[in-house]
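Marked as duplicate of an earlier ticket. Keeping the data here for the record.
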Amino acid sequence: MNLLGKILTLLILVMSIFFLAIALMTSAAHRNWKVAASSLQGEYQAIQQQLATTKTSTLEKEQFIQAEKVARAQQLAQLESQLAVYRNEIDSLSKQVSEETILSKERLARLEQAEARASQLDKENKGLSDRNVQLSKEVATSYEKLTDFINQTFELNTRIEEIETLNKDLSSTVAKQNKVMKRLGIDENELVKDIVPMINAVVVRAEGDLFAIAAGTDDGLRKGHVLDIYRGDKFVGRGVVKNVEHNLAVLGTLSAFMQANVEEGDDVTSKF
């Protein structure tokens, strides 16, 4: 309640007492006016005393209210000062929060990129791990093959050494035999000249009793070798080598064995 309210309350109290006094005076008009006046005088003095007491109390309350106003004003000023400080702090914190939010978003974006990169690296790492396992298997297989190759090479080297040793021995033996054959006047081809090599040739030209085949001295043919003539599975006859070059031989038919004339494309062989 403010000061004006208190004053009005006091006035209402005073007026109430005043009207109460009037009412009492009216009701006691039939009494002796001296007794009534004396009574009213006492009541008036009591009211005056009560009014003085009320004024004193009101003055004290006004002083207290004024002191409270000053104290409250000081407190309000302090609160406003603190509020300004708090607002500045809030503004500063809001700015920091805004900056931290921006930095957090940037960090989050970098973190997401890092996670995506880590996921990609995990996939690449898995692929590399699988490739490493595959390469390890290939290396193990290659090592086994290399070991086998080294063993084979060692065996071959051993075999080569044995063959070289045997070749030296054979060369020495052949050299001795050549010396003996030369001293005895024996030709080295004399003993094998009648042995026909394995021949599978085709007649490239035929004319009368003569025909040519695509084989010669490079295939081991010698003059006098006898070969069989076939046309598919049918036996045609036999021929004897009349003339021979390194890749061509001319043969003459042996009439005792001939069952048909020789034709180009016939097979000539020594396998039978």
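See parent ticket for discussion. The beta strands are 200-207, 210-213, 226-231, 234-244, 249-253, 267-269.
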